[in-house]
Amino acid sequence: MADSVQFQTIPNPNRLSDDARAQLIAEPGFGKVFTDHMVTIEWTEEAGWHDARVRAREPFSIDPASAVLHYAQEIFEGMKAYRGSDGAITLFRPEENARRFNQSAHRMAMPELPEALFLEAIERLVAIDAAWIPAGEGSLYLRPFMFANDVFLGVRPAKRYVFCVIASPVGAYFKGGAKPISVWVSDNYSRAAAGGTGAAKCGGNYAGSLIAQAEAIEHGCDQVVFLDAAEHRWVEELGGMNIFFVFDDGTVKTPPLGTILPGITRASVIALARDKGISVEEARYGFDQWQADAQSGRLREVFVCGTAATIVSVGRILHSGGEFLIGGGEAGAVTQDLRDRLVAIQRGETNDQFGWRRTL
Ligand code: PLP
Ligand code: COI
User: Fold this and answer.
1) Model pTM?
2) How far is the CA of 266 from the centre of ligand 1 (A)?
3) Is 101 helix (H, G, I), strand (E, B) or coil?
4) pLDDT tens digits for 197-243?
5) What residues are in contact with ligand 2 under a 6 Å CB criterion?
6) Taking CA atoms, which of 107, 172, 291, 304 is between 20 and 30 Å from 25?
7) H/E element holding 122?
8) Quick check: CB of 78 below 6 Å from ligand 1?
9) Which CATH number covers residue 201?
10) 167 in ligand 1 pocket by Cβ < 6 Å?
11) Which of 170, 192, 221 is at the close of a domain?
12) How far is the CA of 229 from the centre of ligand 1 (A)?
């Protein structure tokens, strides 16, 4: 039970100095710089969740036969803490991450973590490493994850797990910041199939996407777009973001849930758009139609969204048959407006009309 798990805090005796930290967070990039602490909580079949600790970030020592190293029983989340202009520290919809974490846990036959415990772990880490939250444009990216830690080579759900949260001050995910990105539509690879793990945030999904992402990079693109596994026709999502299409009649379309990751940014974008009276359809969209609509001019804007990326326009699309631009390769007005409104809520620059901010 969440309320029976007591946290023990052992501050890192070797915390970085203020100067060293300030240098690291001045231009953090994405996922390269880490804070002084981490949270760990253990789970065993006999004891359930126990041994919750806030402690120095340090390497794990795990047995070579540990189940995660062989069968990839691992899940994770991605979320951000922001420092508002008034100094307040907030999290964006962390309850949704807690819920999705447990959906992923269920799919991967792992124990669920009580939502209150998940949130307490996040808040304790953000509080102890608050000095690492960059001011201005940056944020503190939080990476909760859980892995199977049984020393056993049989294929079955493990009986021992570690939950951990680490934190990383970050700037923009893409090198070009908010500039439109280019995407490569993969011919050869699929990310997920019906009945598979596409909707879970498990490490294996990302391992399987790397070769397609490498192909995207080889073609000079920022990200890969996956089509469905059955017909190789319907647009699903990117390696690490959901996708939206904006049409000339002002309507918006995004692929339906099922085999894609149910993005929290995706859900927020749908709510923000509908709040402005924009009609948003969650419906299948074929790559053939995408090309036809781009050519006819019916398709005005394409954007992708996720915690790491926020909202970014797609300017250029490459595929084995050629390439085409959207909006002349420039960011569109609907995309820009949604991005501005989302970022203003996340950074506490506007009224939190949906109750999405959680202040520490
Ligand atoms: N799709 C994939 C495959 C992702 O990795 C992510 C990022 O977490 C998303 C979509 C967007 O999800 P969210 O908005 O919850 O970050
Ligand atoms: C996130 O947006 O949080 C992700 O996990 C996706 C990854 C591209 C960093």
Assistant:
1) 0.97
2) 8
3) helix
4) 999 999 999 999 999 999 999 999 999 999 999 999 999 999 999 99
5) 78, 240, 306-308
6) 304
7) helix 115-128
8) yes
9) 3.20.10.10
10) no
11) 170
12) 19
